[in-house]
Fold this sequence. Notes:
Number of strands: 17
Distance between the termini: 19 Å
Strand order of the largest sheet: 8-9-10-14-13-12-11
Number of domains: 3
Amino acid sequence: MSFAPPFFTLPRTGLRMAAATALGLLLSACAALDPGGRKPELPAVPTAAPRTTGSDTPAATEHRRLVTLFGGEYRSSAAELYLNGILARLARTPDSKGDAYRVTILNTQAVNAFALPSGNLYVTRGLLALANDSAEIAAVMAHEIAHVTARHANQRAELEKNAQVISRAASLIQSREKGEEVQASGRRSLASFSRQQELEADQIGVRMIAAAGYDPYGAARFLTSLGRSANLRAALFGQRGQEEQPDILATHPSTPERVRQALAAARQHGAPGIGAGGREEYFNAIDGIDFGDDPNEGFVRGRSFIHPKLGFSFTAPEGFVLENSTQALLGLAAGGAQALRLDNVKLPATTSLETYLGSGWIEGIDASSIRATSLNGIQAALGRARGGEWHFRVAVMRFGADVYRLIFATRNLSPAMDARFIESIESFRPLETEDAQRVRPLRIRIVTASAGDTPATLAQRMAVSEKPVEQFLLLNGLEPGAVLRPEERYKIVVE
Length: 495
């Protein structure tokens, strides 16, 4: 959580949907590979950009914007060298059309990848942690290159433009209702078109990695891990897996469908076992990369959030699962029936916290509930708000040069529930120096299994508090009940 103030000004109507917004922000996996298709779309990608390194070109501007949007650039010379080597092999395949790409690793735990026509290809460190060999990561990058070579962005832009023209014409010639009907039909057509583009990119990607000498089954393996990642993520927040929530407007096909088609495409090139897997080489390239939160944005440790750079800590109520983002700290409990959001704003020192709390940035504030208080020596103000069926407990705290806003949302703000929220608010405190020094970033480490090791014994070495065995299996592409091989190397998460 970087707490850059421009990101955090909530509209008056924003609080009414606070729990739903938190839910959406928590699920921020990649748009190009997202199995459910409900996550935020990537920013608009230019349909064409000159291949140039000039600092003021459209390609350079778009590159800077994307890098900023996704947490900045993550530097790992070993991983960058290895990934660019894979791209060089892919560039020699017929489907790449001779275009050369260069990789940028994005500093975010989200699983994401995309490519631009300018020759820039992006993967996140979260995606690097999920992949398990060279064939898998090659399949991801080939999929993104396929979107560019197949001109999917151009085709989608043209379809969207045509849909808008038809919708406006229907509104003018017939009625507003007819225009809305045509617009809804257009959205369904666009969603279907996007799903077909994803399947096409999968097919081209399998063909590319096979031509480059990689195991063509790597695409199906990674897609399987991607689906399992989405389901584990949902389970951590007490929700159903994405595959159990069909959405006719989903822009991506279901993961099982993509896996089936990727397997069928791989079989066109031979039986399993052909092509290079490159597990050992890939593990060597990613050993030691950061995992999870960016250290500059604070650390989630169980229910606690610790931000050494900004100098404070906070503990959520029992039952909450937290996730950090560049916009805010978010949390869910009871399957989404309760939510929290912690962010910050700039506020003149002359503006009292009570005045700010009642100034209208929150719709439905109960003015009689606003009261000034002190939390562990920090000036604060508390209040309650109501928006539709949601109840909110709100706190604002002046700490350092910023004002921090902590919002709890629940459908039933009983006295016991309110007391839990107040207790959590009161945990917001300055961070002691020794506590700040004690917390360290999480990293991927490659370890060698010994005789007798099991997923459970290696999971015990993982610095994760939620479902460590499940997370170990996911990180290593293993199914439940898997037997580890002595002398085989595996990924774990350590401090």
